[in-house]
Amino acid sequence: MTTTPRTTSRTTAPTATAALLPPLTGIGVGGGSAAGPVARMAAPPALPEPRAVAPDDAPAEAAAARAALAAVAEDLEGRAAAADGEAAGVLAAQAMMAADPALADRAAALTTEGHDAAHALDAAFGAFRASLVAAGGYFAERTADLDDLRDRAVARVLGLPMPGLPDPGHPYVLVADDLAPADTAQLDPATVLALVTEGGGPTSHTAILAKVLGLPAVVGCAGAGRLAEGTRLLVDGATGTVVPEPTAGQVAEAAAREEERRRAVARVSGPGRTADGHAVGLLVNLGALPELPAAAAADSEGVGLFRTEFLYLDRTTAPTAEEQRAAYRNVFDAFAGRRVVVRTLDAGADKPLPFATAPGEPNPALGVRGLRTARRHPALLDTQLAAIAAAARDTAADVWVMAPMVSVPAEAAAFAEQARAHGLRTAGAMVEVPAAALRAGQLAQGCDFLSIGTNDLAQYAFAADRMLGSLAGLLDPWQPALLDLVRTAAAAGAAHGRPVGVCGEAAADPLLALVLVGLGVTSLSTAPACLPEVRAALAAHTLDTCRRLAGLALSASDAETARTAVARAAEAARATRTAEPEQTPPAAEAAARTAPAG
């Protein structure tokens, strides 16, 4: 992960706009800090005045519209083939949308009504966009994809420059209202120093990929739209602050902090431990096989969240048991001797499947999703558990399974019983809805472990769509009410001798990791690039300090107050510990040698 402060030698005089702007704040992701000049996303292509199309000319306009869509799809397919991991999946999904024959047919039909190719494409995308907005949830989130495809197709048919990432010829801080998935997937950390977006939230594509790339980023940053091209910024992904036209002293101070953090990260490796030897399992999230090499190479204790949806997406039928077994075995072999926690199919809501998801649900996020899918299609879960068990045989990996979207204790117990019937020894439940957190003790009695998904738990606790950027503040994982639910689940797990992990985006924040451990969480699972800083943060603080920090966060009135109070207290505790002679109590030495990571 990039932790060294990065700046560009380009200097710019403060603009009038920048001089009037105070520091901006948003949600910090990605960690680290960087300084450099603003470069903004290229503007979408402007539509010319409509041209009346005679009936005889309609076929040519229709052909032009189809050709533009095909060219966009081909370009995205090529970029997907050259990419890997999450970027490849994002680009491939966009290519499929551009190649949708229904979209091309709609644009062609509009040309017969007298529209020129550019306006036919614009109207066709507009109709599809309205449908997605009306559907809400996952579908509404895909409007950003459609807007990007519309811009690309219109630019192609008009012969205009393709919209997308700027290329000013020097490193820059990318500023945008939001980033389309195709653009986010193509970010080059050698050129893009940091990201600032006015929209987006902690679970957006921008936020997730910023963490993967190790880029400092601030999303949901109000006022970012007023930052002029060339304005020099200091972006701090840890604090979520953006300083226009920083002084040399501010940049130097940020650089010093980054250098200290870099040294702290380099000093620590191996299993997660607090400063006094309390074990905290540090694991990676895995969402697709192209991510496997980097995930397996990470200094982790295994996989805390193996998302299996990649096997099911973009298909008209479910994968066979043998297809699944082969994919799972690849992962288990790569993590021989380590734990792999497999999440069973989480279909529905943001991952609709034609063979598993009922169309037309008025609110998919509150409908048949996750484990509930097994009620309608029991063979899906049964086949998957059989495939996982078959792949786990004769492997050196410690294979666990867990069910998503568990709501009541009976579901957890039934899932665990079904998993054990297939020969899977360790079965758990995800805590993603408040009901599961509030009855976590009863859930723990029926299964072997609990795993908290903070993204969905926040969505349901605050009745805030996790895909809606305007509600990003409610979805901030520092919200004290969310942390209360985490504490409840962790305490219930401890009372029944069950490990309780966190596998949501909250686990990637080194400062929040301290709070989570203080709340009783026994393991943290996140993107591989985020583990070094989380490990270093734990090593710099005792368990007692983590508990004190957790108390500060819980007593705060809101997320920002919690974050600020914990940051100040953690820095004071770190400074005090650094000033003291280093000594390891005998009890801590024993704990470090023997304590297992939960």
Description of the structure:
This protein is α/β, with parallel strands linked by helices and 598 residues long. It is 47% helix and 13% strand. It contains 24 helices and 17 strands. Strands 1, 2, 3, 4, 5, 6, 7, 8 and 9 form a 9-stranded mixed β-sheet that branches. The chain is globular, with a radius of gyration of 25 Å. The two termini are 25 Å apart. Mean pLDDT is 86; it is low at 1-5, 7-19 and 583-597.
Short descriptors:
598 residues, alpha/beta, Enzyme I, Chain A, domain 2, TIM Barrel, 9-stranded mixed beta sheet, 24 helices, 17 strands, 47% helix, globular
The rough form would be described as: globular
> What is the top-level CATH class of the largest domain?
Alpha Beta
The residue-averaged pLDDT reads 86
Helix content: 40-55%
CATH fold-level topology of the largest domain: TIM Barrel
- Number of folding domains? 3
How many DSSP helices? Answer: 24
Any idea what the radius of gyration is?
Answer: 25 Å
Strand content: 5-15%
Second rung of CATH, namely the architecture of the largest domain: Alpha-Beta Barrel
In short:
The protein is built from 24 helices and 17 strands. It is an alpha/beta fold and 598 residues long. The strands form two sheets. Strands 1, 2, 3, 4, 5, 6, 7, 8 and 9 form a nine-stranded mixed beta sheet that branches. Strands 10-11-12-13-14-15-16-17 form an eight-stranded parallel beta barrel, surrounded by six helices.
